[in-house]
Design brief:
348 residues; single chain; 5-stranded mixed β-sheet; 9% strand
């Protein structure tokens, strides 16, 4: 038994990736998630519109961070600002009472805003838009759609090229008249179709079972989902190119997927995270898909306010797929057969 224990320790010493997963990863996750796990909202951005907007803005509690004042604005202008996610809430100054419009698509921020307005002693007439009853499922289902696609795209696809390497068919791909990009696209295409069908099924079930609305354009949502799928599928293929076996592929995929659960804004609001952790969320593709999904499904937002999220995901496609193709080309290079040398016939 002692010999087996020593043997396992020696194998672990050679497998540095597993040692890192066992020792370093728990410490990193504790620090990152410890700072990220924060439901409290210390302040919200607000725009004040309507007559006497300047005076009303100066009377708001410190919780409301006034970012814009528009004396010529009205309820329609304030609603448009919420649809485009320019602010968290809007105060519409009226003759008798001041109305507070709250973006209900950001659940914890909306809850904190309503609580702060109630503590103000009824000075504001609160109306929650896009999620009037502050239903948790309305906010969670769009995020879960992206999370499910992340799991399918990253973990399942990460096993693709690894399986080729373990089965010994990677050398066969090397001698076939295929470019590395052809192989990558061939690997991604079937998973893309299946994952897209899963996405449609999850969206329909979310609407039927939980009553989640779909206020925006289905075409715009489908485009965003397709771009996001290409990113996570590319991540899966890239992981498979840097892994020697399926165990390593799954370990690396989990390391990529887990931060997206807590740092993408799906559970904890990004605004509540310190900048030392928040910047990680802006590097995660799920962050931008959630922005697209919530904007289209709940607020009915258009491309005018969502184009930055689409642009970032498109950049991620270029980076991830470009890296996967480069890694795969390097893997194929040692397997390519050397070209035979032509010898001149020796004259008799």
């Amino acid at each position: 038994m002692l010999a087996m224990i020593l043997k396992e320790f020696r194998e672990l010493r050679r497998d540095r990736r597993t040692v890192a997963m066992l020792v370093a990863l728990p410490l990193v996750l504790l620090v990152i998630f410890g700072y990220a796990a924060n439901f409290s909202v210390s302040s919200v951005t607000v725009e004040v519109v309507g007559p006497n907007a300047d005076s009303v803005a100066g009377q708001l509690p410190p919780f409301f961070d006034v970012t814009a004042v528009d004396p010529s604005g009205d309820t329609e202008a304030g609603t448009d600002a919420l649809v485009d996610a320019e602010v968290d809430s809007v105060v519409v100054v009226g003759d008798g009472t001041n109305q507070l419009l709250v973006d209900g698509s950001s659940l914890f921020t909306a809850q904190a805003t309503v609580a702060a307005a109630n503590q103000a002693g009824g000075a504001l007439d609160v109306e929650v838009l896009f999620n009037p009853d502050l239903e948790t499922s309305w906010v969670m289902v769009p995020g879960l759609i992206g999370l499910i696609m992340t799991f399918i795209g990253t973990i399942v696809t990460s096993l693709g090229l690894v399986r080729e390497r373990q089965d010994g068919t990677l050398e066969q791909l090397a001698v076939m008249p295929l470019r590395p990009s052809d192989v990558i696209i061939g690997k991604i295409a079937p998973y893309f179709v299946l994952a897209y069908l899963d996405m449609v099924a999850v969206v329909v079930l979310g609407m039927l079972l939980f009553g989640v609305p779909f206020a925006g354009s289905a075409v715009l949502f489908g485009l965003g989902a397709a771009i996001f799928l290409l990113v996570v599928l590319g991540l899966g293929v890239f992981i498979s190119t840097v892994s020697e076996n399926q165990g390593q592929a799954i370990q690396t995929a989990m390391f990529v997927v887990m931060p997206q659960i807590l740092l993408s804004g799906m559970i904890f609001p990004l605004s509540s995270m310190p900048w030392g952790v928040r910047w990680i969320g802006y590097l995660l593709p799920l962050t931008y898909f959630i922005e697209i999904a919530l904007g289209i499904m709940l607020r009915g937002a258009g491309i005018g306010s969502l184009w930055p999220a689409y642009a970032v995901l498109c950049v991620m496609i270029v980076v991830v797929l470009g890296g996967a193709v480069a890694r795969f080309r390097r893997d194929l290079a040692p397997s390519l057969p050397s070209r035979p040398v032509d010898h001149e016939p020796v004259a008799a």
